[in-house]
Amino acid sequence: MGIHFRKSRGIMQDFAHSFSLAFQLLWRFDPALGEIVFLSLRVTFAAVLIACVIGLPIGAALAILRFPGRGLFVVLFNTLMGLPPVVVGLLVYMLLSNAGPLGVLQLLYTPGAMIIAQAVLVTPIIVALTQQVLSDLNAEYADTFRSMVVPWHKAAVTLLWDARYALLTVVLAGFGRAIAEVGAVIIVGGNINHVTRVMTTAIALETSKGDLALALALGLVLLMIALAVNAAVMAVRASARRMAYA
Amino acid sequence: MLTRFFSASAAAVLALGVVATAPALADDDRFIIVQSTTSTQNSGLLDAILPQFKDKSGIEVRVVAVGTGQALKNARNGDGDVLLVHAKPAEEKFVADGFGVKRSDVMYNDFVIIGPKSDPAGIKGLSDAPLALRKIADSKAPFASRGDDSGTHKKERALWKMAEVDIGEASGSWYRETGSGMGATLNAAAGMGAYTMSDRATWIAFKNKGELAILTEGDDRLFNQYGVILVNPEKHAAVKKDDGQAFIDWLIGAEGQKAIAAYQVDGQQLFFPNATKETN
Fold first, then answer.
1. Which of A168, A211, A241, B44 has the most CB within a 10 Å radius?
2. What is the radius of gyration, based on Cα positions, of chain A?
3. B65 has which bridge partners?
4. Which of A45, A109, A191 sits opposite B20 (nearest CB)?
5. Residue of B64, B81, B266 to mutate when probing chain A, most A C-beta within 10 A
């Protein structure tokens, strides 16, 4: 990180020190840190985008359609919300390995592999929570849809649109899961400096070097970034609401 | 008006996503992937010498630093062009099994036995590693083992065998397998006041030493040899044979050996080059 301090400290000094270190890292805008932060956001935004493109329609379909085995799917997606990241990392590694079926894509140890792994982690969250949010709304709208003979995909668009503010929270839940996980990206990305090193893998690396203050400082920076993203989304939501009711 | 606002922002988000993903998928840089061990990375050695190789050759070296066991496994799957690890018998088996082209010595350092300064097992100053381990076992003082089939773990198990201590039986009591890398294991040892074994390079560069210190060192049996192997392109067509070989030639050649010798932390040399031209 380009910042070095005196060597031996106790745990409590480390703890106090990490706060000032975190602010210094942000204040100086350390370029090495900037690169890592940018990659973290790039990977997570792309993964959440992919998860939404796949997850929102599936969640809506599960909320509206009635078909045999639907309950099974709902339980399945709810269960998959608890997928251990390290297992996802292992599965994606086995797929993308040169010895695996998708080895020809040469995606292992690239940000692309990390995006895939995080998208796999986040999609079930988007599906399960979207299904929950839209089921409640669908119960309200069901009579109208029936009386107007609305086809299901049009009903889905209506529900997704009308629930857009609640769905923002769903997307943020997915974002939080992806930006904070380390188990999957460290396996498929390899934590390669300047290529696949993100905030969480950098934290793991500094911990293994015994630099606990720097590791915790990076954790605080990550928390502040997550705070900024959440605040930005909430601000957009609030101003959109004001416009809607103006 | 509102619809337009939302479609505009949706388009912006989409565009952002595409922009964000595109450079991730198209990568034309000239690079190789080296599967290596945590000690070469955590000690800072690779960060110090790899830029010198890149300046000379234009080849970027991307390092995946894992335990030697996992590095061998990943390379077996063809996920890497070069292996730089430290477990000679396992490396020779890797080549004999046809997964590697040839193994060359690169450098060495040594392992050290580390423990709390209070030293309840009384091993301070010993230069007989198996004897030190036997004393730790007799005192039942906690010992943190890597437990991850890494090069260090393989060496540690060999030393327990020489000490005639059955660690399988002690596992879970005083013998604690962390199943993690060297740094995490040192953190655990610092946390519970345990003995452990580390390569000297990782120990010197480690920052959370706490109450731990080197207690036993200088036994020939603590020798730690690093080797480099080109992954066999005949097994995996994706292996970048020429660029990988160029890196190996540099590493075991005069320039690489000099760069290794020049790397110091706190005035101490961490790795000692010992490549020979007629490699085995």
1. A211
2. 21
3. B36
4. A45
5. B64
What is the ipTM score, two decimals? 0.81
- B214 lies in the same domain as B200: yes
Give the architecture (CATH level 2) of A31-198: Orthogonal Bundle (1.10)
| Token pair of A169 as six digits | 């929270």
A17: Cα within 13 Å, side-chain hemisphere:
17
Where exactly are the structural domains of chain A? 31-198
**Does B208 lie in the same domain as B80?**
no
Closest Cα in chain A, distance from residue B53 (Å): 16
CATH number of the domain encompassing residue B177: 3.40.190.10
B240 domain-assigned:
yes
Residue in A with minimal Cα distance to B18 = A46
DSSP sequence for A30-84:
-HHHHHHHHHHHHHHHHHHHHHHHHHHHHHHHHHH---TTHHHHHHHHHHHTT--
Residue B61 shares a structural domain with residue B50: yes
B267 and B240: one domain?
yes
Q: Which residues pair with B31 in a beta bridge?
A: B60
Interface test with A, best of B16, B54, B76, B79 (most A CBs within 10 A): B79
Please report, in tens digits, the pLDDT of each residue of chain B (280 residues total). 344 444 454 455 445 555 555 554 445 589 999 999 989 998 999 999 999 999 999 999 999 999 899 999 999 999 999 999 999 999 999 999 999 999 999 999 999 999 999 999 999 999 999 999 999 999 999 999 999 989 999 999 999 999 999 999 999 999 999 999 999 999 999 999 999 999 999 999 999 999 999 999 999 999 999 999 999 999 999 999 999 999 999 999 999 999 999 999 989 999 999 998 644 4
Q: Report pLDDT digits (tens) over A102-157.
A: 999 999 999 999 999 999 999 999 999 999 999 999 999 988 998 888 898 899 99
Pairing of strands B272-273, B100-116: antiparallel
Burial of A53 (0-12, 13-18, 19+ CB in 10 A): middle
| Residue B259 within a domain | yes
The residue of chain A nearest to residue B201, with distances taken between CA atoms, is A209
- Per the structure, the count of domains in chain B is 2
Domain containing B52: what range?
31-109+225-273
Kindly state whether residue B123 falls inside one of the protein's structural domains.
yes
